[in-house]
Design brief:
binds alpha-D-psicofuranose, binds manganese (II) ion, isomerase, metal ion binding, Xyl_isomerase-like_TIM-brl, L-rhamnose isomerase/sugar isomerase
Length: about 400
C-alpha cells in the first residue's frame, strides 16, 4: 500500500532540481584537492555526467554553468550537446573571486577600473545566457574586509547598488538577476552581502526581475532557515535555492545528509508559501564531492530532496490548521512529526518502477558500467576542478 496519494505523486513528478557543473569536477579544501578517476576534462564531459543523474532519476533536467570555469568557444554547440543528452543549460554563475584584480573587491571596489571590469564580466555572462537560453544570472560575491576600519562599508554598499543596477539594465526580457548571500568567507570581518536582508534590500531596489538566492550552507549555526524561506516567499523575492548541507561552515556536503529534519522543515515552508514547482523558485544543488564519487553523490542528493519533499507533502495541513487554531501545541507538533517520520522510500521505489525508472537509482547507476567507462576513457588531459 502506497503512502503517497496520486495528488502527491503528480506534484513529485513535476519536480526538477538543477545540478551544478562544478559538482562533477574535483574539489577539496585548502589542504588538498584529491583527484577522482573519471573526472570530466571539460564542460562537455561535465554535462554528459550530469545527464546520467537525470537518466536514472528523472529529477535533474538542467545544469548550471560557472563562467569562466565552463568557458567554451561555442555556447550554441554546448547547448545542442546538452539537449542531445536530454538536459538543458540553466543558471549562469558569474565569478569575481579568482582574479588578482579582485583582491579588495569587485562590484564594490572603489577603483573604477576594477569595478568596470567586474561589471563587464557580468555583461559577458548575460551574452552567454542569450546563447544558452538561460534565464538566471546568479551572483555570489566574495567581497568584504578582514579588519575593522579596513573599508568604508557604506560606500561599498552604495557602489554595489550602482553596479547591480548597471547589470540589471543589461538583462533581456525574461532574464533574472539572482543575488546570493553568505555570512562569511573568504572575508572574515565584514561581508558585503552577508544575509538575506542585505540581498533583499539590494534586489528590491532593482526591480521585479531581481531576486534572492538562499544557499542553505550560508547561515550562522542555529539560524532558523525555514523562517527566511517563509519571509522571502511572502515578499515574492525567493528566486532560488542552493541546496547542500553542513556541519560547521560552508561544508557543501550532500543535501539532507547533515540534517534531514531541517530539509524537511524548509520544504514544508516552500509548500506552504506556494514555492514548490513554481516557475519563480529554482531548486539547485551547490555541492562539492571532495572524497566520494561525483555522479552517485549527485544522484543521492536529488533523491534526498525528493524524499523530503514527499514527506513534507504528507503533512496534514488541514488538521495542522485546526490544531494551531486551538493552540494545541502538542497536537500540532505531532502532526508535523508524523509526516517527517514516515518512511516514503518503498512507495517512491514502487512509483519509480511504475514510470519505467529504476527502483533504486543508486544501484542502477552502479550496475550501468558508466563509471568504469569514464574511468577507463578519461585518462590524460587535465581534470576539471572547482576553480581550475
Ligand atoms: C562559495 O561559497 C560558493 O559555494 C557559493 O555558494 C556559490 O554559489 C558557489 O560557490 C559557486 O560560485
Ligand atoms: Mn551557493
Ligand atoms: Mn557556498
Amino acid at each position: 500500500m502506497s503512502t503517497l496519494s496520486p495528488e502527491i505523486l503528480s506534484t513529485l513528478e513535476a519536480q526538477g532540481i538543477e545540478l551544478p557543473s562544478w559538482a562533477f569536477g574535483n574539489s577539496g579544501t585548502r589542504f588538498r584537492v584529491f583527484a577522482t578517476p573519471g573526472t570530466p576534462r571539460d564542460p562537455y564531459e561535465k554535462i554528459a555526467d550530469a545527464a546520467q543523474v537525470h537518466r536514472f532519476t528523472a529529477l535533474a533536467p538542467s545544469v548550471a554553468l560557472h563562467i569562466p570555469w565552463d568557458k567554451v568557444e561555442d555556447y550554441a554547440d554546448l547547448r545542442r550537446h546538452a539537449e542531445d543528452q536530454g538536459v538543458t543549460l540553466g543558471t549562469i554563475n558569474s565569478n569575481t573571486f579568482q582574479d588578482e584584480d579582485y583582491k579588495f573587491g569587485a562590484l564594490t571596489h572603489h577603483d573604477e577600473r576594477v569595478r568596470r571590469k567586474a561589471i563587464e564580466h557580468h555583461f559577458e555572462c548575460i551574452d552567454i545566457m542569450d546563447e544558452t537560453g538561460s534565464r538566471d544570472l546568479k551572483i555570489w560575491l566574495a567581497e568584504g574586509s578582514n579588519y575593522p576600519g579596513q573599508n568604508d562599508m557604506r560606500g561599498r554598499q552604495d557602489r554595489l547598488q550602482d553596479s547591480l543596477q548597471q547589470i540589471y539594465a543589461h538583462l533581456t526580457d525574461g532574464q533574472r538577476l539572482v543575488l546570493e548571500y553568505k555570512f562569511f568567507e573568504p572575508a572574515f570581518y565584514h561581508t558585503d552581502v552577508p544575509d538575506w536582508g542585505t540581498s533583499y534590500a539590494q534586489v528590491a531596489a532593482l526591480g521585479d526581475r531581481a531576486v534572492v538566492c538562499l544557499d542553505t550552507g550560508h547561515h550562522a549555526p542555529g539560524t532558523n532557515i525555514e523562517f527566511i524561506v517563509m519571509q522571502l516567499l511572502r515578499l515574492g523575492k525567493l528566486g532560488s535555492f542552493d541546496f547542500n548541507s553542513r556541519f560547521y561552515a560552508d561544508d557543501d556536503l550532500i543535501v539532507g545528509a547533515a540534517d534531514p529534519f531541517q530539509l524537511f522543515r524548509i520544504i514544508f515552508e516552500v509548500i506552504r508559501g506556494g514555492g514548490l514547482n513554481s516557475p519563480d523558485v529554482a531548486f539547485m544543488l551547490d555541492q562539492c564531492h571532495n572524497i566520494e564519487k561525483k555522479i552517485p553523490g549527485q544522484i543521492r542528493s536529488v533523491l534526498n530532496v525528493q524524499e523530503m519533499t514527499a514527506r513534507a507533502l504528507l503533512v496534514d495541513r488541514e488538521a495542522l490548521a485546526v490544531a494551531q487554531a486551538e493552540n494545541d501545541v502538542l497536537a500540532a507538533n505531532a502532526i508535523f512529526m508524523d509526516a517527517f517520520y514516515t518512511d516514503v522510500r518503498p512507495a517512491l521505489a514502487d512509483w519509480r518502477e511504475a514510470r519505467g525508472l529504476p527502483r533504486d537509482p543508486m544501484a542502477a547507476f552502479g550496475a550501468s558500467g558508466y563509471q568504469e567507462k569514464i574511468e577507463a576513457e578519461r585518462v590524460g588531459g587535465v581534470q576539471a576542478g572547482w576553480g581550475a
